[in-house]
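TA notes, week 10

Several of you asked for a full example with nothing omitted. So below is the full record: structure tokens for the whole chain, then the designed sequence directly under it. When grading your own attempts, check the secondary structure regions first.
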């Protein structure tokens, strides 16, 4: 038999046996021990992951159904405005517990002002609601950006401990540095895992917030168009001499 082939087969068998032993030894207790061993990284990452999960769930619940509610309210409001029922339109906005309802209600509080002024009022109110929708997302982005560096810090600490243990023992070998290397790898895995989760949902929620903001913009444009239609149906000269000429608002 070829000695080289025999040696290769023996090495492969020993590697397979080592992998099998490693897999059988990686139970829950061993994994918890390794996580506890790298506490300088895993504990902060655990807190960060819980905070990130709470923000994701809260924001997802906040965005849920907002676009559909915005379209539905806009359609109903435009129908009432085109029929000239301003009191019912205002009551509808007050009864709706959605951000777009508050935007519409603020827009309907102003009467006999220039179209550009009304658009400015709606834009300001819309921007305030969009800022509120993005509340907390910066924390998610910060966690996603810093987690790899925290993991890298834990990796450096683990390698430093491994070399310190080697210097203390006065000899090398895998058994001497195994604890420090495992701590370094656990720290890296924890940092990358939290970063992947946080950045993935950060980008998703940013897209959702942008989509809701676009729905608010389109809804405000529909409101302005409906009010313009109502105003165009007014008798000529009805608003002559009123506050519209000076740009001051009148409550509806």
């Amino acid at each position: 038999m070829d000695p080289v082939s025999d040696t290769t087969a023996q090495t492969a068998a020993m590697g397979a046996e080592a992998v099998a032993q490693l897999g059988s030894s990686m139970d829950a207790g061993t994994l918890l021990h390794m996580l506890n061993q790298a506490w300088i990284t895993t504990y902060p990452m655990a807190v960060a992951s819980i905070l990130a999960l709470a923000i994701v769930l809260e924001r997802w619940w906040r965005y849920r159904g907002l676009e559909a509610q915005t379209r539905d309210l806009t359609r109903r409001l435009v129908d009432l405005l085109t029929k000239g029922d301003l009191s019912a339109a205002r009551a509808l906005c007050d009864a709706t517990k959605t951000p777009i309802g508050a935007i519409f209600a603020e827009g309907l509080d102003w009467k006999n002002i220039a179209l550009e002024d009304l658009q400015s009022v709606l834009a300001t109110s819309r921007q305030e609601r969009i800022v509120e929708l993005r509340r907390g997302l910066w924390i998610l982005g910060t966690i996603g950006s810093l987690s790899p560096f925290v993991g890298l810090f834990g990796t450096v600490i683990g390698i430093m401990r491994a070399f310190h243990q080697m210097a203390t023992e006065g000899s090398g070998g895998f058994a001497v540095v195994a604890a420090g290397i495992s701590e370094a790898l656990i720290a890296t895995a924890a940092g990358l895992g939290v970063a992947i989760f946080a950045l993935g949902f950060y980008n998703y929620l940013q897209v959702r917030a942008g989509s809701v903001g676009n729905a608010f913009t389109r809804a405000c444009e529909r409101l302005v168009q409906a009010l313009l239609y109502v105003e165009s149906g007014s008798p000529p000269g009805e608003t002559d001499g009123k506050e519209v000429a000076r740009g001051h608002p009148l409550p509806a």
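Residues 60-156+190-232 form one domain. Use that as a sanity check on your answer.
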